[in-house]
Each structure stands twice: as C-alpha cells, then as structure tokens.
Amino acid sequence: MKQTPVLEGAFVSDPEPALVGSCCRSCDTVAFPASFTCPNPRCSRKDVVAAPISRTGRLASWTTVHFPPPPPFVAPDPFVPITVVEVEFTSEGIQVVGPLTGASPDRLRTGMAMETVVEPYYTDDSGEVIGWKFRPAEGGGDE
How many domains does the chain have? Predict the structure, then answer.
C-alpha cells in the first residue's frame, strides 16, 4: 500500500522514527515544522538547516477532542474522540503537538517520557497517509 506523509519532510521513519525541524546556524534556534528562516525575533537570519529532533521528550500537556476537527483532518465516521498531546523537547527548546497512540489518556502524567512514532493517520483511495504520533516511552527513558 502506498504511504504518503501528512507533511513532507517533517519526519523520518528509518532507522528510527523522528521529527525533522530546522535549526538556525547563527543562534541555534530550532523550529518545527521546519522554517525557511530563523523564527527567533532577535535573529531573523535565513541560514537554517534541517535538524533532527530528539526521539523522546516529556509530556507537557494533553486534551481529548470530542468533535471532528476541520479539514484537512480526515475524521472517521462515526467520529471517535482523539487525545492530542504536547511533548516538550528540552534539548531543542520546543514543544510539538501530535496525536496520542498506544495508551489511554487515563495513563498520562505531566512530565512522563514520551517517544515519537510514525503511524497511519487515515487511509483513502490513494493509500495510507502517515504522520507523527506520540506514545509513552518504554522504560520511561530520558531525552
């Protein structure tokens, strides 16, 4: 089955799933998704390069969405509530939002270790659309 990324260049699956952002060569500010210019208002240089983001981070926040988000999100019919988490990547100084997978929201605790995975978001006539999700890290590892 054909797999299409939900956002081209935002993640890799091999050798391990990981997000890919950008990093300013002048001030080391990291952005996700990748930016063509530095997002730091004190810098605003255009000298950025692709930058892998740590595979694990810490759970900062989460919420469960009980209604279908607007397009381009493709909701199943009938809609099943989804939990969205915000993961802090301390080494990079950023937080990234993504769907929760592999755990019940009842199991979530602020500060717990989370890891990035790549899984299908949905399937359509052209195949699977894949993207990043977060799940509790095995063994509660650190960044």
Answer: 1
Three-state secondary structure readout of the chain:
CCEEECCCCCEECCCCCEEEEEEECCCCCEECCCCCCCCCCCCCCCCEEEEECCCEEEEEEEEEECCCCCCCCCCCCCCCCEEEEEEEECCCCEEEEEEECCCCHHHCCCCCEEEEEEEEEEEECCEEEEEEEEEECHHHCCC
Q: Which residues of the chain have pLDDT under 50?
A: 141-143
Range of the domain at 134: 3-140
**What pLDDT sits at residue 139?**
63
